[in-house]
């Protein structure tokens, strides 16, 4: 089963290796799913959440613009697998040509999928299996009362 998820914030977490690592927090099924991301991915998500354009288009902005120009739309993103500590995702898209709908599914890193979803305001869904394995109670996370922790990026 899939559950709608919301991006609770992007901040700095502590990875198993102990260093401060950017993390995106997804809330699904009343749990928080932390996904560690790169500094660039975190910055891209923060800019999208704040609605602030970068001085030049970032990769995610470019991809969204290209998808739109090709007459397609992104319907939703899915975080649908977790294997050996690695999350896997998909982007569901559609395109209309000559009044015919073509559905497309693209394999994607969850960090890219989430960054794109923030730009096109499409749903993010997470499967039960992923939440069961990676979900944590919200009280385990100190979000500092802010939707987006400044990473100093």
UniProtKB/TrEMBL annotation:
Gene3D superfamilies per the UniProt record, alphabetical: Bifunctional nuclease domain
Domain of life, per lineage: Archaea
Residue span of region Disordered: 131-153
Source organism per UniProt: Haloarcula taiwanensis
PANTHER family (UniProt xref): VON HIPPEL-LINDAU DISEASE TUMOR SUPPRESSOR (PTHR15160:SF1), VON HIPPEL-LINDAU PROTEIN (PTHR15160)
Protein name as catalogued: BFN domain-containing protein
Record-level Gene Ontology MF annotations: nuclease activity
One Pfam match: BFN_dom
């Amino acid at each position: 089963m899939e559950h709608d998820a919301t991006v609770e914030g992007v901040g700095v977490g502590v990875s198993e290796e102990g260093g401060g690592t950017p993390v995106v927090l997804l809330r699904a099924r009343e749990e928080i799913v932390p996904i560690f991301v790169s500094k660039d991915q975190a910055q891209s998500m923060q800019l999208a959440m704040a609605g602030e354009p970068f001085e030049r288009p970032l990769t995610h902005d470019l991809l969204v613009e290209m998808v739109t120009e090709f007459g397609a739309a992104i319907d939703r993103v899915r975080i649908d697998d977790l294997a050996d500590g690695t999350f896997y995702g998909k982007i569901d898209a559609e395109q209309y040509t000559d009044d015919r709908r073509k559905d497309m599914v693209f394999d994607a890193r969850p960090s890219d999928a989430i960054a794109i979803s923030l730009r096109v305001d499409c749903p993010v869904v997470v499967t039960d299996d992923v939440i069961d394995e990676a979900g944590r109670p919200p009280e385990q996370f100190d979000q500092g009362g802010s939707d987006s922790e400044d990473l100093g990026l």
